[in-house]
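hiii so my PI (J.) wants the whole complex modelled not just the main chain, which honestly fair. so below is everything: two entries, each one labled with what it is. i double checked the lines twice but i was tired so who knows lol
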Amino acid sequence: MYSLANPQRFMSLSGRVLPFVAILAVITLAVGLYMAFSAPPDFRQGETVRIMYIHVPSAWLAMMAYMMIAIAGLGVLIWRHPLADVAAKAAAPLGAAFTFLALVTGSLWGKPMWGTYWQWDARMTSMLVLLFLYLGLMALRSAMEDASRASRVTAILALVGAINIPIIKFSVDWWETLHQPASVFRMSGSTIHPDLLWPLMVMAVGFTLLFFALHLAAMRNEIMRRRAIGLQLRRVDNAAAALAT
Amino acid sequence: MSAFLALVSRDLRIAFKDGGAIGIALGFYLVVVAIVPIGLGPDLNLLSRIGPGLLWVALLLSALLSVDRIFHNDLEDGTLEVIALGPLPLELVATAKALAHWLSTALPLVLLAPILGLLLNLEAGAYPAIVLTMLIGSPAVSFLGALGAALTLGLRRGGLLVALLILPLYVPILIFGVASVDRMLSALEPSSQPLLILAALAIATVVLVPLAAAQALRVNLG
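here's the output for the full assembly
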């Protein structure tokens, strides 16, 4: 584990792993999409059930990415781990994108099923708040010029958010049952039929692989960006030193 | 303890001496509550139904308008560095400053709420319920606001950023604040359950947020 803390080792290892993860993600997603389209339509939801194969993995990844950012935040604050901040920074836009995807696909599914694009359903509301948390993290980081200060301040915000997410989830659940108890569609009644479950599982694995491929690529980009900045600063220093002598 | 009290009373004296910031927050509260009926139409039944929620939302916005001030002026004139070097741990500094904000800004807003309720045709029983829930919930508003101010310390346009960072964290306070008013007035099954949850949230916020705010101050002061 300690050897991975070295960005140089990380670059060479991730460079070898990344193509495999990417190819595996493409294959799994292709198989998953084929299964998703060849699966039988749902009895009640009809063809719209296929939206689920994009929607559910996106929602899972939206939450996983936040957990990742929070754990990376611990790494930043406690161990000052150089890669933890890179991981947190790279995961935030990905998490926001998957949250957005989950909201959009949910909304497209809601129009034919609920008759409205937006329902103040507990899950939708808490996903919307999660999107705001992601946007806040990215806005705070981009507002700070000093990179090491930005990394630690966003880590604090990420941890506060991580403590808050269960509270927000609980309060929104409570709020929604108070306002509209009966109108909401619930999955819990019927377990999902295996014909529909298998494509979902394959898609979930495919999305997770896609996430890790994108995340590794984004981390590599970030490390290279930091190196480029470092090189430029060194050139400025050298030029200044040359002028001074 | 004396350093803590000295800091609180210093902040209060500054806040009340130049009064401007409190006046702006109160004026903003009044304007927000006044502009909503103009947008929705003067239907008194509708207004009395949405009144508690409207007063709560306007309170959050008005408080956010002023949290920027908690650390900003002290950072600009160097006082914050001196305080940070002093004997008081930064956790207690954050607590003292958030407490001063609550006393100087949030509390006047809470006390203004029933007067604004007159504009919204609230029913008579709603006034004590609103003041009570706001008294219990508003410390969390000030403390989370102080966290936002600590996170964005020294940033240009920090005030706008605080709103984006902190409003999502206000969601539970808002939900249980409005719900406790509703449930206290509910004719069918009055209950104090949401009020108790609101109190629990407020207490946990007041205890835990200064830890995060102090950490943010440490990073931002360098």
